[in-house]
Amino acid sequence: EVYSHLCKEGHRVVGVFTVPDKDGKADPLALAAEKNGTPVFKFPRWRVKGKTIKEVAEAYRSVGAELNVLPFCTQFIPMDVIDSPKHGSIIYHPSILPRHRGASAINWTLIMGDKKAGFSVFWADDGLDTGPILLQRSCDVEPNDTVDALYNRFLFPEGIKAMVEAVQLIADGKAPRVPQSEEGATYEGIQRKENAEISWYQSAEALHNWIRGHDKVPGAWAEINGQVVTFYGSSLLNSSIPPGEPLEIKGAEKPGLVTKNGLVLFGNDGKALMVRNLQFEDGKMIPASHYFSSGEMSVVELTAEEVKVAETIKIQQTSLNLEQAQWMLPEIRQKCGGLQLQNEDVYMATKFEDFIQKVVRKLRGEDQEAELVVDYVSKEINEMTVKMPYQCFINGQFTDAEDGKTYDTINPTDGSVSSDLVVCAIIIPWNYPLMMLAWKSAACLAAGNTLVLKPAQVTPLTALKFAELSVKAGFPKGVINIIPGSGGVAGQRLSEHPDIRKLGFTGSTLIGKQIMKSCAVSNLKKVSLELGGKSPLIIFSDCELDKAVRTGMGAVFFNKGENCIAAGRLFVEESIHDEFVARVVSIFRFALRGSSKRIPQNQVCDVGILEQCLLAGPPLFSSPLKQPGCAGDRGVSRQPRDTHVDHEE
Q1: Which of 350, 361, 367 lies closest to 299 in space, CA to CA?
Q2: How far apart are CA 290 and CA 227, in angstroms?
Q3: Taking the model in full, what pTM does it have?
Q4: Homologous superfamily of 423-529 in CATH?
Q5: pLDDT digits (tens, 9 = 90+) for 94-140
Q6: Topology of 304-364 in CATH?
Q7: Which of 205, 530, 562, 579 is catalytic?
Q8: Burial degree of 145 (CB within 10 A; 0-12, 13-18, 19+)
């Protein structure tokens, strides 16, 4: 990702040094670089017995690098290589240095219960994560963050952006070198499976931090019934302890508790935490709530027909891994008559024989999944027996309240009577003079009401034509009433009138506030407000660019932009900004500009306001003139500014 973004920003990558292929497969960095024609080198190590390998050094010098960028490093790079380029070397480290120097920084951020996490981009020196800081970013640590969650949510995506930003700062000659302080500095060792065992004489919070600080790698573990069991999905338990079956854990002062929601563990402070999943030594992972049932499932003896099914499935055995499960399962479903299988059926049965057993049980209808238990209340209604649950529904199960209390209920509809409101007022805007009238009037009349409609002061003729047609259609007198006029006079009178029971308004937020106030003071009318305002459209880099351009243009120019949800501004992610603007401009050049007299309002004064703004300030989207900061001579504004014009666009 860093490589791709650097290339996209115009930086020339002269060489990529990465790890050798594994099982005949190149790592993603090598694949991306090779596809792009960048020289790729795959050395297993850079030095032997403390000395740089000559072949590796020569290969490195051959590319003529001016800067070394190390987004992720698993090898020791010799100092003569680190210091060789003109601008030296920069490294990404997943902690807020000088805290948590070392190879397991993310793990220790969580293990130590830090409230803030983050990363540092620093200049490499001969120490271990001790070089001057170029830039840092931080984020809050969520209560149940794991190593994977923290990495995927913040450290990975923001780290990519930061590395690219750091390179640009160096290219611009603006990159700082802030010496690291030794105050508050920590160094922790690398966390591996052998030192991830849980020490039980700790508080519940410390146990929680230890477990999530090893989730998913290397995995915090304990010994249960002579077997190493790894714990995943920890969370602090703030509610009462649910009932369950005790489970002895080696070294724990108090047995765990296998409940319907997971495995409850206890700290030495009397507080508790819950673990959702357990993994055994053979790699099989189960929900912790299934611990006592996991070993009780007997092996199914296959019939002759089921043996044939098993042989059919075994054809797919070479594909049984996490990456290929999604392609394997559809074939098995087809061969087994549409049998309902999910990817989880593979993941939770990591032995192939277990998977066959799962398939056979499903074919027999023996899924062994707990049925929903409901204690119904039955009532006889209209010669039918209706069964209704009456308990609390929590975590997918019906259960009694802890205190066992119940209360009587009533049917709130027993005393409800629906009736019309008699007289309703409708105030509509100018941009959709017929459609708005039809939307609002149809519902009002269908519910048995009469209406008084005030069209926009500048577009009254459509509504008056509608009134004429309503007479010809046979509407009784007084059902439809049209009152043209200004909002300050006619509109205000409608909102204050005591005989009007409901008012519907579409227009500005400012006027909507005044209408709501008047309706409340007069007779507490029912009010429906649709208050307009330009709506920014946000476009991210993972969009389908052609579709996003078309959608963005439509959002801006639909109905000439005279739309309460028109995208007055487009916010485009930086990495695709230039390409997006180029495509918009290429379309915009061919846009037809109509006469200012062919708009619903036909107000020359409004166009005059736009022209005055053009002369007085930066360009508008509607500008026909070429101005500084525009992409093209028809006025697509690239950099909105905090000016009066931008607020009034």
Answers
A1: 361
A2: 17
A3: 0.52
A4: Aldehyde Dehydrogenase; Chain A, domain 1 (3.40.605.10)
A5: 999 999 999 999 999 999 999 999 999 999 999 999 999 999 999 99
A6: 1.10.1200
A7: 530
A8: buried
